[in-house]
């Protein structure tokens, strides 16, 4: 459902942004005509075309978050769904900043830079249909088993981090660095989001390293347990044999004691009979 919605909205965003690119600069909008795609919309009269397009783009991301909230949550718990929605809000704020770079004087007249930005925008939206940003289940709850081919090298958390780096943070970081170095686009928001992307990429790579180390440690622990199991089994069998032997010895000892007591009784009875016969 989310993919179908994005497949209909992304071409509209491309059309609107490319139409703004062909229109007059924002400073001359009041003196010139509006673009053709807004000329026949009654509500667009008296509204800046750039503000109109920005409102549509922001509404699109809000609809994505609300739609994912209202959709069936499937196997996710409410805690996981709420955290997933908060992640979506943070991703949407970072994606919307790409459109603010199109308003810079150094960028808005360069068609190639705008097209690359739109391609990154479309590429980043592909992570919304993939529900791989789920958090780990609470302790005590066993996570759902995944296919062996999927978890053979990495866990689901590692795949989600890799997708986030590859679909959004990594490409956005390279794009913003290009704008800052090559196009000389320097402002507070650009510097802030560039530093944010650098920190997120570093933290996600560190998290991937930690998760992989923990997974390998668990694998080594399971291998050691599997190697020690035969030893424990042999030790347990030897211990059981010893206990059985001790039990037999105790049982035999008890029986020997009983037989000795019976023999003593018989001897005592026989001695009494002999004494009686002598007296008689």
List the defining traits of the structure above.
7 helices, 73% helix, mainly alpha, 280 residues
What does this structure look like?
The protein is 73% helix and 0% strand. By secondary structure, it is mainly alpha-helical. The N and C termini lie far apart (117 Å).
Summarize the structure.
With 280 residues, the protein is mostly helical.
Q: How many H/I helices?
A: 7
Characterize the biggest β-sheet: none
Cα distance, first to last residue?
A: 117 Å
Q: What is the overall silhouette?
A: rod-shaped
Radius of gyration: 39 Å
- Strand content is under 5%
Let me know the average pLDDT.
74
Uncertain stretches = 26-32, 133-140, 142-152
Q: Report the strand count.
A: 0
- The amount of helix comes to over 70%
* Structural class category: mainly alpha
Summarize the topology:
Blueprint: H1 2-22, H2 36-39, H3 49-70, H4 78-101, H5 111-125, H6 156-181, H7 188-279
């Amino acid at each position: 459902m989310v993919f179908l919605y994005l497949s209909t909205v992304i071409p509209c965003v491309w059309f609107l942004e490319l139409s703004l690119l062909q229109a007059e600069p924002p400073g001359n909008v009041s003196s010139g005509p509006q673009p053709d795609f807004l000329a026949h919309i009654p509500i667009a009269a008296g509204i800046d075309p750039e503000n109109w397009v920005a409102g549509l783009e922001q509404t699109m991301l809000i609809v994505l978050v609300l739609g994912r909230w209202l959709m069936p949550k499937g196997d996710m718990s409410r805690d996981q769904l709420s955290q997933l929605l908060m992640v979506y809000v943070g991703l949407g704020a970072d994606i919307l900043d790409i459109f603010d770079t199109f308003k810079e004087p150094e960028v808005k007249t360069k068609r190639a830079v705008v097209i690359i930005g739109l391609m990154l925008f479309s590429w980043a939206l592909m992570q919304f249909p993939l529900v791989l940003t789920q958090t780990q289940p609470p302790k005590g709850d066993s996570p759902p088993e995944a296919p062996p081919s999927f978890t053979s090298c990495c866990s689901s958390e590692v795949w989600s981090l890799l997708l986030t780096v590859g679909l959004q943070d990594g490409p956005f970081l390279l794009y913003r660095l290009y704008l800052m170095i090559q196009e000389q686009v320097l402002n507070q928001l650009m510097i802030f989001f560039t530093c944010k992307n650098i920190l997120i990429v570093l933290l996600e790579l560190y998290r991937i390293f930690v998760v992989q180390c923990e997974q390998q440690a668990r694998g080594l622990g399971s291998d050691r347990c599997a190697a020690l199991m035969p030893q424990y089994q042999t030790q347990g069998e030897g211990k059981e044999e010893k206990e059985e032997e001790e039990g037999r010895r105790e049982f035999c000892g008890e029986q020997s004691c009983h037989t000795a007591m019976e023999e003593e009784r018989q001897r005592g009875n026989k001695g009494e009979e002999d004494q009686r016969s002598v007296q008689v």
